[in-house]
Amino acid sequence: MKIICACGQLIHDGTDALPHKAHLIPDQAWHGLFDRLDEVIAHECQTIAQRESAKTLMRALIGGASRNAWQCGGCGRLYVHDGAGQLQCYVPADALTSRAALSGTVSWATSAGSAGYLHAP
Ligand SMILES: [Zn+2]
Question: Domain residues for 28?
Answer without folding.
Answer: 2-11+21-119
